[in-house]
Amino acid sequence: MTDLLETVSTSGAVYDCSHWGRLRLTGGDRLKFLHNQSSNNCLLLQPGQGADTVFLTSTARTLDLATLFVHSDWVELLISPQRREFLLKWLDKYIFFGDDVQVSDRTPDSYCYRVFGAVADQMSAQFDLEPFAQPYAHVTVTYENTPLTIAATSGLAILGLTLWSDRPLSDLLHPYPQLSDADWEHLRIRQGRPAADAELTEDYNPLEARLGHTISFNKGCYIGQETIARLNTYQGVKQHLWGLELSAAVTPPTPLFLDGEKVGLLTSCTPLNRGAFGLGYVRTKVGGTGLTLHTPEGIIAQVVEVPFLSTVG
Fold this sequence. Notes:
Shape: globular
Largest sheet: 6 strands, mixed
Strand order of the largest sheet: 8-9-10-7-1-11
Radius of gyration: 20 Å
Number of strands: 17
Strand content: 25-35%
Structural class: alpha+beta
Number of helices: 8
Order of helices and strands: HEEHEEEHEEHEEEHEHHEEEEEEH
Low-confidence stretches: none
């Protein structure tokens, strides 16, 4: 059986993620507002740039991993589909009198796609794009009389692009292999991208999820900042997220044991041609890559590195 990850990385494919949440922030305080509500240093970003950032509770528990794209007159946020309504209300709650910022839900009126491998190369050639100077950089071109934003991120540690438009792009992208939601789930687990309701919940903080690239440790106050600073200063992170090579598929959440002691929790799992692959949190004190753990049923779980976290974390 052909390996999906290898095929997508080389031959390429398209993932229609139009059901993911897309929020637009306008107003003169839009970047300052995001700067104060999320973990990254949003004030450093210029139009045409972007970044990942995390929304946190006051105790630094993870609400969602988001990607922002800065335009001249607005900022676009790409968020997890199951966090769309919550974050729309959550952000609105923190807009106070005198704040020049407006948040609108663009999900019903726009379309978003991830394109990988050779398909991304085809898109770059079709729109005569110069190589992007940095990750998350983006340009806006015109396609069928409609603005089309093309960004240098696939959402995974695979060469690719994100396309964002106010019109569907099925006519542009239909010749290429299409990925289902189940395919995306398989890829994101293999790559190590943490997901809402699995690795990103109010049980974990972004340092545990190894999302260090989303955190600025020297910017001003933001929601959850005090806890993050304390954990970082005193090396208080008690567990980390890792990949797990499994001898067989298991149903998450499943505890992980070392010498009879529970030392972690498997949070996601996807089957392979032989065995399975998962993601899970493992206590820092017992180590990381190279550990051999077991589930209660005796399934072997070998702790390994994953591309997304090793690239950006």
